TrEMBL record:
GO MF annotations, alphabetized: ligase activity
Organism phylogeny: Bacteria, Pseudomonadati, Pseudomonadota, Betaproteobacteria, Rhodocyclales
Domain AMP-dependent synthetase/ligase: 132-275
Name of the protein described by the UniProt record: Phenylacetate--CoA ligase
InterPro entries noted in UniProt: AMP-bd_C_sf, AMP-dep_synth/lig_dom, ANL_N_sf
Keyword field: Ligase
Amino acid sequence: MSHFDERETRDPAERERELLARLPAQIGHARAHTAAFAQLLTDVDPATITSREALAALPVTRKSDLLELQKGARPFGGFAAVTWGRRCARVFASPGPIYEPEGARPDYWRLARAFHAAGFREGDLVHNTFAYHMTPAGSMMETAAHALGCSVFPGGVGQTEQQLEAIRDLQPNAYTGTPSFLRILIEKADEAGMAIPFTKAFVSGEAFPPSQRDALLARGIAAYQAYATADIGLIAYETPARDGLVIDEDVLVEIVRPGTGDPVPEGEVGEVVVTTFNPDYPLIRFGTGDLSAMLPGASPCGRTNARIKGWMGRADQTTKVKGMFVHPGQVAAVLKRHPEVARARLVVDNPDLTDRMTLQCEATGSVGLHDALIESLREATKLRGEVRFMAPGTLPNDGKIIDDIRRYD
């Protein structure tokens, strides 16, 4: 079977109806069973959230917010609908620390779909080199492999010589881990005159450029990647089409202008915001802090869900100018006051080692608009800035709201 299930190839309109129909119950569940959403969504009637437009009116909870909220309310900042017991099988810590629950459901992180697209099947032996200690990556991969009927060797990180010994003895045909550690294993195996038995790989946790993919393929290893987080689980995954990442069937993804909750047009780079239907950890409009963009059309592989380009950088572009923090949200506030500006970015440089802000705007310039923008920028940031008008389509489509190009050499 080339697809994990029939949901992957259903009519896009049917998928959209099903996702939107699930929204009111999930929002109601989050409000009723988590302290955080009881507060964030106090004035929201869940029954009215039946469209993307209605969803876009709800607040975004960003990962940076989650870190601070968890510090004030351990362990989960009031966002989890489970406590210790059977529904919470494990708890993990990501850097920060940010704590994440793992429920007892099979394939809790929903990565089996991505493993299947990467060619993993029942009967495979998977050499798992993601960490099993404290962080969730090892468990994320193992539970996905088990859901497909694979066996797993829990290699974990490091100990290259011992891992190679196990690979020689067990002859696993599949690998999961970072692409850099796979490269190390291959190099060490070559030095030892040992053949690596892997024919398939699922990699994550690092950039995986086409050059690395092609180098592995030349060694007989077909490797695929996915975009997942410890908070959400699977968000999107690569398929044999090698044309963007297909969004998972059980999340609702928006691309928003950094620093805001406002969705951007298709193709424009922005922050990935995800709503999950996980009953244990029901994150609504969770801002990942990652940049990406929606791709037009459907994947050539036959899967009909929307696609994103993949990871394109970080959305949190907060910087400090003359000792004052300047946030993307402040720049967005300026633009909301001046709708005649189509697109803009705040460029920060330091000629003569003196900080300078210039708001570059795609707009038809006028003296009145120039002066109004300078005043709005001063009010939003408490700093003096300059304004420069640009021709439409001049600014790069890279998701940057603040571009810090200062140099100190």
